[in-house]
Design a protein that fits this description.
Elements lengths: L1 H14 L4 H13 L1 H23 L2 H7 L1 H24 L4 H4 L6 H17 L3 H9 L10 H32 L4 H24 L3
């Protein structure tokens, strides 16, 4: 199982680097608390599972070989990041207080799951990364399908755990009972970072 340990270490090393997926988990943890932000982590994990599965199915090669498909995917992802950034910039810091009741909990969790999923799935570079990474851990006769399943599932688990950790860090800020003004500034800063990330993704050559 040495290959699996090395594979997981490689995925963790990339996943822990701050980016849109970790940033949305952190922000949701700060706004909604760790338990609710686990829905964000679940959305991120589901998107990562789909991306890893797409890479194993050959979609990564299609993106590499088809410039038009890659551009379309990239621009759609960039547009969503900008939209999310603007939405977070305009949202009120006390929105969660209005939805804190038990009847609103499923609706809030669904929105957090959706945001976590869409932020993660909006980055086509993840599929390209998995397309390049997976072959490095294949090649043993008779075991490739088993390894592929193990690696794909591991990607989802790692994505969930990393997002959950970032959500926990955000929840620490919530536990400090910061003022609404401070929370508003955090939301605006996060929204600005998402807009910047969307513009950066659209402008990138890869």
């Amino acid at each position: 199982m040495a290959f699996w340990i090395l594979f997981c270490a490689s995925v963790v090393a990339v996943s822990v680097v701050p980016g849109p997926s970790t940033l949305i988990a952190f922000t949701h943890g700060a706004r909604f608390g760790w338990c609710k932000a686990l829905a964000t982590a679940a959305g991120n994990a589901f998107a990562s599972l789909l991306q890893a599965s797409a890479a194993s199915a050959g979609l990564g090669l299609l993106l590499t070989e088809s410039a038009s498909v890659l551009l379309a995917t990239k621009y759609l992802g960039a547009a969503y990041l900008v939209y999310l950034g603007v939405r977070m910039w305009r949202s009120k810091a006390d929105e969660i207080e209005a939805g804190a009741g038990t009847t609103a909990a499923p609706r809030v969790s669904g929105r957090l799951f959706r945001d976590g999923f869409l932020v993660a799935v909006s980055n086509p570079k993840a599929i390209l990364f998995f397309t390049a990474l997976f072959p490095q851990f294949l090649g043993t006769p008779g075991s490739e399908s088993g390894r592929m399943v193990l690696m794909t599932v591991s990607v989802g688990v790692i994505a969930f755990m990393v997002a959950a950790v970032y959500a926990g860090l955000g929840a620490r800020i919530r536990a400090m009972s910061v003022t609404q003004t401070a929370m508003r500034r955090l939301q605006r800063a996060t929204g600005g970072l998402f807009v910047f990330a969307g513009i950066g993704l659209a402008a990138s050559r890869a």
